Each structure stands twice: as C-alpha cells, then as structure tokens.
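Continuing the series of single-chain predictions for the mutant panel. This is the parent chain; the variants come on the following pages.
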Amino acid sequence: MPGKSLLLAVAVVTLIGVGAPSPAHAGNVAEGRALFLRYCSSCHGAAGDGRGPVSVTLRKQPADLTQLGARYGVPLPAGQIARIIDGRDTLAAHGDREMPVWGQRFSDIYDAKGSLQGDMDVRIRKIINFLNSIQSPPAPGDKPPAPVGRVGPMPPEPDA
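Parent structure:
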C-alpha cells in the first residue's frame, strides 16, 4: 500500500497547486495594477469603483469596473475589453466617448520613445489581468451573463 499513499500525496499536492495563481500571473496583476493606477484611476478610482478624483468633473460617471464581471462574465473577455480600452470599440449606449483612447495614447508614447507598439498589447493585457482580480463576486443565484457586443480574440500572450 505504500505506492497508493505516495500516489494520493502527489494527487493532493497537484490539486492544491492547480488553484494557486502562478508567480508570473501574480506579477502581471501587480504590473496591471500599477498601469491602472497610472492611466485609469484618476477617473475610475484606485479601487476601480468609478469614484476617482476627476470623476466629479465629468458629465458621465465613469464605470464601476469592479462590476464588469456581472456584465461580461469572469474571466473578462480580454479581446472585447481590450478593444474598449484601446478605442477600437465604442459603447454606443454611452454616447460620446469621454474615456481617452488609450491605444492611440500608448502608441504615441512608444513612438516618442522609439520603441515598438507591440508593448501596447502587453500593457493592456496586464490591465485586464488586474481588472479580473478586482471583480466583485456574483450574488447567490445570479445567472452567468450573456455575451455583450462583439467578442473576439486577444493577441496571444508572449512567452514568459
């Protein structure tokens, strides 16, 4: 029976490790938070709740980003959220777009520094990883949300 005990121990260790985020993912979330604080928190707030210091001066209250999962599901659809952040998609229901088009802004930053725009996708992916980490848990009995708008792929993650 010693073989079965060893097999059981390996299975338990494997299962425990499955639920734990990898150090690389945790690093992406931390880097995403830093990017979020730099580019998004003045409107959306440090907690992502739409209550940043600039929000009181805007005509429309910024979105409570902790509730994106209730609308789009968790994990968030990265391709769709990226298109909203980088300006490829606008939300018609929101009227005029007050949110900066970060795709163009990030592109301008990289052009000025003489670097490649490819880093823009990495930054946006890290912000999305952070957004996934701040989603409020669904209320008991909530149905999973139906997809909203166009859903498309996000470029593949670069090898770590």
